[in-house]
Amino acid sequence: TTTDKDGNTTTKDAKIVVNSNDKPVIEAQDQTYKVGDKIDPLKDVKGTDKEDGTTEVKVAKIIDQSGKELTEIPNDQAGEYTVTYTTTDKDGNTTTKDAKIVVNSNDKPVIEAQDQTYKVGDKIDPLKDVKGTDKEDGTTEVKVAKIVDQSGKELTEIPSDQPGEYTVTYTTTDKDGNTTTKQIIITIKNKDAAVAGQGSSNQSQATTTSTTAKHAGKGSSKTTSSQLPQTGEQRTVINTGIGATILLGVAAIFSKLRKKN
């Protein structure tokens, strides 16, 4: 209101707006990358202010797991990095915010598979006890990529009726498209070979039995022989008999001579 010297008065309304002086806000979420990816710390990061609208956000600091300050996040090293963002509005109000950026390894998956052995006629399962694992994805599916026999011929499956060695190639792929292959040997043994082995064993047993029998025979022979005089004893008996005969002969001669006299 105002009044002049003549007493005229004028009034007028006006609005006084008191704006807030809130600090700007930074919108930033934790991020995850994999080794080899292009890393953008400012991806999807925004700064807003009630009075100014959008504000510019900058990376103020990057710290690695050991506490070392970096100028950028390396994309060839797995690890966890703390990024500090900052933004300032036109009133000079500054806001900071931390976010985590994780860089995961991008290793290829691993196939666990060992050589296998079967016998002719067995049910053959090339994927028996075969596993695929990945650091990021966990379990991965393993498939049989190729089967090759000893002659180099590619097969669709391993015949259970044919002995031989077969090379099996496995493959698995993780979610990042990393593919791993591994080869093993599956051996099919002939059952005849096993039977022949048993035959040898039986033959060995038969030989052992025969030998035992022979020894038993020898034992019986010894038992029989023990009932007769041994060689030395036989010689003694013979010598005794000869001596007795000679004595009898001499006695007979003397007897005749006496009669003549």
Automatic annotation (TrEMBL):
Cited InterPro entries: Ig-like_bact, Ig-like_fold, LPXTG_anchor
Protein name: Gram-positive cocci surface proteins LPxTG domain-containing protein
Domain Gram-positive cocci surface proteins LPxTG: 228-261
PROSITE patterns per record: GRAM_POS_ANCHORING
Keyword Isomerase: no
Record flagged with keyword Membrane: yes
Residues spanning the membrane: 236-255
Superkingdom of origin: Bacteria
Low complexity: compositionally biased ranges: 196-213
Assigned keywords, A-Z: Cell wall, Membrane, Peptidoglycan-anchor, Secreted, Signal, Transmembrane, Transmembrane helix
Region (Disordered): 196-233
Pfam families attached to this UniProt entry: Big_3 (PF07523), Gram_pos_anchor (PF00746)
Ranges of biased composition (kind: Polar residues): 220-233
Entry-linked Gene3D superfamilies: Immunoglobulins (2.60.40.10)
